[in-house]
Write a structure and sequence with these properties.
13 helices, Alpha-Beta Plaits, 8-stranded mixed β-sheet, alpha+beta, 430 residues, 4-stranded antiparallel β-sheet, 2 domains, 19% strand, Ribosomal Protein S5, domain 2
Length: 430
């Protein structure tokens, strides 16, 4: 197949500037990401004939604070990252969405005349597409058919919200092609709705909001219909520190029940105290009713609520520490968060397979390394039970740490991330 004419746009000054803003201006980074879009163009024309193409990018996210607080209307600190899901898309006239996705042998196809949840589609990308289209219509927004090719370097199971990145990407395509008036916050909420109702996975809104809005942000979910977002400018590079994600590999066990038990148990405590979610419950209410709570909901549920109380306060402390440039205090709070997740939240290994505790192993060795060098922080990253931990280390100490962790978890298990300033984007407009 000869090179499509539209590939020329990838080399012009404007598109190169866009790539630089998203990924950095180093020559090899520019070429790597230019080639990602070029590969999608070839893939698009292998499958479709439409000419009016739009280019899209939606980042993954990292959770900096607020482990399992969003689903009980708490606070989180999150940031978009320099790994993303990208797409090339164009309208069609047949009222069908057809998405060719890298790594899948068959395209995802959804007839937009059929927008009811389908049980046999649960846990699939098809369910997400159908759910997003359904919610767009419910909210009075337009939908229509499109062809798209997508690719992502936000690895599944990495704790960087690969699913939320794809959800927000699909919502952004619908918005760009048929609306251009849906806010980033609304696109995030639509993605969450689809994941909850159509995909059948209980999740909060943090992942989608961080992917949609971008940058370093705090989010207060006290009113989940109107979450309060505050942006924060802070450059970890200036501190001569790196933000690392360590992928411990993890089991192929389905952790859906483990994940869902956390919000369910937290809410069981709140409901026994005649509230719906933990944000409306006070510490004193828990202690005054401790005997009844232990009998009716169990000790683990209470411990998880105690984590919620403390983690919620930590997010505020982390936000103001970064705002005031007190990076050392921020790191102290990250370490406290890690201990709380292990001891109170209890999401660092699954009880159904106690022989495999990769997260705990990675945290234990990371803590020993940090103690040895005298600076740094680590914590579980994302939902937990398996997958990844988050580590902050001074740049001068990275090489030895990476070699050590690779000796345990394998080559390239450590990813160094940068915080991206932009959320979900139609690249045609910037």
């Amino acid at each position: 197949m000869s090179e499509p004419k539209i590939c020329k746009i990838l080399y012009n000054q404007g598109f190169t500037r866009i790539l630089g803003k998203l990924y950095g201006y180093e020559k090899d980074i520019l070429e790597t990401n230019r080639n990602r879009f070029k590969k999608l163009i070839f893939e698009f024309y292998r499958n479709f004939n439409e000419e009016d193409l739009h280019f899209f990018s939606t980042p993954g996210r990292t959770e900096l604070g607020g482990n399992h607080t969003d689903h009980n209307n708490g606070k989180v600190l999150a940031a978009s990252i320099n790994l993303d899901s990208i797409a090339i898309a164009a309208k069609n006239l047949n009222n069908k969405v057809v998405i060719v996705s890298e790594g899948y042998s068959e395209p995802f196809c959804v007839d937009l005349r059929e927008l009811e949840p389908k049980k046999n589609e649960q846990q699939t990308t098809t369910a997400l597409i159908r759910g997003i289209a359904s919610r767009f219509n419910q909210l009075g927004y337009r939908t229509g058919g499109f062809y798209a090719c997508i690719s992502s370097n936000v690895l599944p199971g990495s704790g960087l919200s690969s699913s939320a990145s794809i959800e927000v990407l699909i919502g952004t395509i619908f918005n760009t092609l048929y609306n251009n008036r849906v806010s980033e916050e609304s696109i995030a909420m639509i993605g969450q709705y689809s994941e909850n109702i159509f995909f059948n996975k209980p999740c909060g809104l943090m992942d989608q909001l961080a992917c949609a809005i971008g940058g370093l942000i705090s989010i207060d979910f006290k009113n989940p219909e109107k979450p309060v977002v505050q942006r924060l400018n802070f450059d970890f590079i200036e501190e001569k520190y790196s933000l690392l994600i360590v992928n411990t590999g993890g089991s192929h066990i389905d952790f859906t029940d483990d994940y869902s038990s956390i919000p369910e148990e937290m809410k069981s405590v709140a409901q026994l105290l005649e509230k719906n979610v933990c944000i409306d419950v006070g510490f004193d209410q828990v202690t005054k009713n401790i005997k009844e709570l232990r009998t009716k909901v169990g000790d683990r549920a209470i411990l998880r609520v105690l984590h919620f109380f403390e983690e919620n306060r930590r997010v505020e402390k982390e936000f103001y520490a970064l705002k005031q440039g007190n990076f050392k205090y921020f790191l102290d709070m990250v370490n406290e968060s890690g201990k709380s997740s292990c001891c109170l939240l209890q999401n660092c290994f699954a009880t159904k397979n106690v022989r495999e505790q990769g997260l705990m192993l990675a945290l234990a060795f990371s803590e020993l390394y940090i103690k040895k060098i005298g600076s740094g922080a680590c914590r579980v990253h994302g939902g937990g039970f398996a997958g990844t931990i988050q580590v902050f280390l001074p740049n001068k100490s990275l090489e030895q740490y990476i070699k050590f962790m690779e000796s345990i978890f394998g080559e390239k298990c450590v990813m160094a991330l940068n915080i991206r300033s932009y959320g979900t984007l139609n690249l045609n407009t910037i």
